[in-house]
Amino acid sequence: MSAPSQNSLHTALCDLLGCRYPIVQTAMGWVADAKLVAATGNAGAFGFLAGATIPPGEVEREILRVKAASDRPFGINFHMFQPNADEVIDMAIRHRLRGVSYGRGPDAAMIGRLKAAGVVCMPTVGAAKHAAKAVELGADVVTVQGGEGGGHTGGTPTTLLLPQVLDSVRVPVVAAGGFFDGRGLAAALAYGAAGVAMGTRFLMSSESPVPAQTLERYVKVRDPASIRVSLAIDGLPQRMIDNALLLELEQAGPWRRAWLALNAARKWQARTGMRTAQMLGTAWRAVREQDYSAAQTLMAANAPVLIQRAMVEGHPDEGVLPSGQAAAAIGAIVPCEQIVSDIVAQARTRLEALTAGTPQAVREHSHA
C-alpha cells in the first residue's frame, strides 16, 4: 500500500480560507474566544470568533488578541439582531479577516460589501432551500448543519441533508453536525463536501474557555440520547445536554416561563447596553423578518443568558449546555493541535484504505 498523499486533504475550502486542512471550528457563543481561535489556526484548521456574544465596543480588542497569538487566517460570526452587527462587519473589513459566518439575515447589499472587501461569506443553514437562498444572496461557501449538531438545530440528519444541499448549490459545501474525528472528515469528503465544521469537538479542548466543572459534564456524557432537542429555552429547537434546569423549564407553566424570559431580557439588556426601544425594535424585526412567534420572541433572551451561566460562570446545573451528540463519543479534553493532527492522520488513513480497495485494510484501520 502506498503512503497517503500529503495533499490528499487539500480542498477548495483550504484555498478560500487559507487553512492547511479542511476543518472549521464553529463560532460557539461564549466559547469561541481569541485563545481558542488562535489555537485552532495554529493547528492548521480555521477558527471563527464568536462575534455574536462579544459586547459592543470590544470586537476589535478580541480580533487583535487573535492576531497577537497567531498569524493564521481566521474569521468572525454575527447575526443581524445583535446590537453591534455593524461593528462586527466594519471590523471584519478593516482587519481583513478571511471570512464571516452568519445565519439568515444579511441582505445581498451587505454580503456584497463584505465580498468586495475580500471577505469570504460562509452562512450556516439547516435546509436545502436555505442553502440555495444563501447562494442567491452571494454566499461563497455554505455550511450545512444536520440535526446531530449542537445548539439551535433542525430535525434532518446530516447524512440526508448534506447530499440534498450538495445537489442544490454550486459552491463549496462544509458539513456540520455529528463530526468529531477523521472518519467523519473522510466520509464528508466522500459525499462531495469541501470539509467539515465542528463545535463540540473544539469546545472539549484544552484551550476552551469553558470552566472545568462545566467541561466535566461534557466529558461524562455517554448516551447520545441524553443530548437532546428541546423547545423550552427559547421556543426554537435547541440540542443540549440534559440537566435539571432543562427539566424545570419543560415542566414550567406559561406564567413561570414568561417571568424567566423577562428576567433574562433584563440581564441581556444590561450586558449589551441596548436601550428599551432598541430591544423592542429587534423583537419586531424577529417577528416580521424571521417569522418568530410572540412566544419565541419573548423567550429569545433566555438562550444567551442561560448559556452564559453554564459556559462562562461555571454553573452547569443552573444554565444551558449546548452540545452536539458527538460529545458522547469524545470523552476527553485534549489540545487543539492534537485534535487536528489526529483527525488529519485518521482521515488520510481511511481515504488511503478506501482507495486501496482492500476490505481487510478498511477494517484494520477503522479505529486508527
Summarize the structure.
By secondary structure, the protein is α/β, with parallel strands linked by helices.
Structure write-up:
With 368 residues, the protein is an alpha/beta fold. It folds into 2 domains: 12-209 and 331-364, Alpha-Beta Barrel (TIM Barrel), CATH 3.20.20; 212-327, no CATH class. Helices cover 48% and strands 11% of the residues. The chain has 18 helices and 12 strands. The protein has helices at 12-17, 34-42, 59-69, 85-94, 108-116, 128-137, 158-168, 182-191, 200-203, 212-220, 244-251, 254-272, 276-289, 294-299, 302-311, 327-330, 336-356, 359-364, and strands at 23-25, 46-49, 75-77, 99-101, 120-121, 124-125, 142-145, 151-152, 173-176, 195-198, 227-230, 238-241. The strands form 2 sheets. It has a 9-stranded parallel β-sheet. A 3-stranded antiparallel β-sheet has the order 8-12-11, with no helix packed on it. α6 links the parallel β6 and β7. The longest helix has 21 residues, at 336-356. The radius of gyration is 20 Å and the shape is globular. The two termini are 16 Å apart. Mean pLDDT is 87; it is low at 1-5 and 278-298.
